[in-house]
Amino acid sequence: MKRTSRIGRRVSRPVFAAVVLLVPAVTSASLAAADDGPGPFGVTAVAVAGGPTARVGALFGADRAGKLAGGHFCTASVVHSPGRDLVVTAAHCLDGDGDLIFVPGYRDGKAPYGVWNVHKRFLPDGWAKGQDEDSDVAFAVVGERDGKGVEDVVGGNRFVAGTATGATAVTVTGYPNSREVPVSCTNKPTAHSPTQQRIECPALSGGTSGSPWVNGDGQVVGVLGGHEEGGSTDDVSYSVVLGTEAAELYRDATADP
């Protein structure tokens, strides 16, 4: 199990930080073009700042608001919603105690798009009642800043359930807890089981739980978590196959006043 290292720094749990080595898995396959987009595939590197990457951010305990560096423990991302105030992450990132903040586009101790307070959390029954790994996805509503929602500031990807696993390549962007910048990797998911999907990307270690899996249409079709809370190694990551439960949870989160 990689509970601690995948989640990263949790206020309520001890931390065992891992050293992240961004070593590309360079093979002829990873460098080749695919029918759904150019390579290289299966290579993890620092994500480019700004643009769509700004929608991905780090989660912190609220007590870190004045000192962000070294304090993030999970990843989340902004998804489109009527309230323009919604982020998606893994359920195991939100099931602890204590107030949280979300920092989109976080880099090197700075919050280029502000610090956003988490006001409400939405966890599926399967996770809340039994920590079912097939229910490891969750949403959080964040408060406004200066009269604006977080989506007004950084934009948001559409949350889409029911997409066939591996229909297209996806890009996973997240925050390893041993780094102060986000990393990103593109590859094509494969089925692990009828309810779980997996992706081969190196160096997605502690703190990357909750990272969005975004396809070429800008849709979130996976969230790093699920099996073994994201995986037992840094090189293979998992996501719940987003189905009926995830779609209903999204509807609940967006319908909440």
What does this entry show, briefly?
Helices cover 11% and strands 28% of the residues.
Explain what the structure shows.
The chain has 257 residues and is mainly beta. The chain has 2 domains: 3-49 and 158-243, Trypsin-like serine proteases (Thrombin, subunit H, Beta Barrel), CATH 2.40.10; 55-156 and 246-255, Trypsin-like serine proteases (Thrombin, subunit H). Helices cover 11% and strands 28% of the residues. It contains 4 helices and 15 strands. The protein has helices at 3-7, 125-130, 150-154, 244-255, and strands spanning 44-46, 56-61, 72-79, 86-89, 100-104, 116-122, 138-142, 158-159, 170-174, 183-187, 190-193, 196-200, 212-215, 219-223, 236-240. A 6-stranded mixed sheet has the order 1-10-9-13-14-8, with no helix packed on it. Strand 3 and strand 4 (86-89) form a beta hairpin. The longest helix is centred in the C-terminal third of the chain and has 12 residues, at 244-255. It is globular, with a radius of gyration of 16 Å. The chain starts with a helix and ends with a helix.
